Amino acid sequence: MAQKPSIPKGTRDFNPSEIAKRNYIFDIIKKNFQTYGFQPIETPSFENSDTLLGKYGEEGDRLIFKILNSGDFIRKVDEATYADKNSATIAPRITEKALRYDLTVPFARYVVMHQNDIDFPFKRYQIQPVWRADRPQKGRFREFFQCDADVVGSDSLLQEVELIQLYDAVFSELKLEGATIKMNNRKILAGIAEVIGAKDLLIDFTVALDKLDKIGEDGVKKEMLAKGISEEAIEKASPLFLPQGSNEEQLERLDALLKNSEEGKKGLEELRFILETIAVLGLQSANLSIDVTLARGLNYYTGAIFEVAAPEGVKMGSIGGGGRYDDLTGIFGLKNVSGVGISFGLDRIYLVLEDLGLFPEAIDQSLQVLCVNFGDKEAMAALKLVSQLRKSGVKADIYPSSAKMQKQMKYANNRNVPYVVLIGEQELDNNSFVVKNMKEGTQEKYSLNKVLDFVNYLS
């Protein structure tokens, strides 16, 4: 018995309609990337393991897909290491490469390797798949595309302002109104950790805090306690668990909480500048909101951090995120190169647009015109017509065999073809063709000598 085919959990096949919808999102994102002056690059699907490991924190490292070395890799493991059955010590012996976890760390590696060929500040965009060994669920996949835009070589906060505008421009063009761009600053989080006496546990503090919307206040406090953060420190951080309030109310609350932290006050100053600048420039459809619990548990963020929530009422995780990293290239030997970037979550944006019915009606229309095949002589005339239509940019085709009319019309309906062309014996005699409007059920006759009349009608 033949084995039933399957695909790995967390991966998907895409049908033509889904591809058309995904390309619609890709095209809008790419167009706006280019409008804002970003240039495209691509990096390999897999990197050397040491490029990726240690860059995403403990949780991120666990989600990296490692690639087994080719050949008889197990022979390179000595008996003692093998007998110990410790994956942490065996892994470096049997795997030297890994699938990329995101696009940011490979980008940092790219910048260092090509620094002599780059004009700084370097604005790049990258649209490629990434892989994470995560538990699959709605909106969370093991293989998915990221659409990133980053600027390296400038520490100006105008870059953060521009990236917020970029988010707004893309969501507005997608007609995804009411998306919320949530913003915080890692310096503020570091300042809070300092004033509550948990400075040495900053990573544990921020990773737990970032889960507030998933596990609630009690869950966050329990995790902080488990990580060694004292009850007294957690109590001092209690203002973070209060209802958020307006941006101005949160700024006032943070002013009071961070009055004894220079780093925290610096983060607050950066946050205020971005908010005030955006207030002057305005946004088309997105909302900009401070979220002091936003931590984005990636180790490399050092300044502003962003996360985008779908419009209210749509149950979906974040549909975008990013932030400022002051020295990410430093891990590869190029010091003091500041960068900031954002990412669009294509797959989740797709699900949101689908839920809200925001895809254009004819987006999956892969064929505009289908010519019915009545036989050899008629098919030759239809082929000539199809060739003319294609040269004019019309998506046209001919049914490949002279099957029953019912079968050909069913094919046209299944393909969602709006116009079916009929060239039978009578039309050949009259040097004409008949166009059937499938939606309205009407028919129109055109001369084969004046195909452009039909093309103009389609446009």
Automatic annotation (TrEMBL):
Subunit structure: Homodimer.
Record's protein name: Histidine--tRNA ligase
Keywords: Aminoacyl-tRNA synthetase, ATP-binding, Cytoplasm, Ligase, Nucleotide-binding, Protein biosynthesis
Reaction(s) this enzyme catalyzes, per UniProt: tRNA(His) + L-histidine + ATP = L-histidyl-tRNA(His) + AMP + diphosphate + H(+)
Record bears the keyword Protein biosynthesis: yes
Binding site for L-histidine: D102, L103, T104, R132, Q146, D150, R296, Y300, Y301
Listed PROSITE patterns: AA_TRNA_LIGASE_II (PS50862)
InterPro entries according to UniProt: aa-tRNA-synth_II, aa-tRNA-synth_II/BPL/LPL, Anticodon-bd, Anticodon-bd_dom_sf, His-tRNA-ligase, HisRS-like_core, HisRS/HisZ, HisRS_anticodon
GO cellular component: cytoplasm
HAMAP family: His_tRNA_synth
Molecular functions per Gene Ontology: ATP binding; histidine-tRNA ligase activity
Keyword Lyase found: no
Organism: Maribacter litoralis
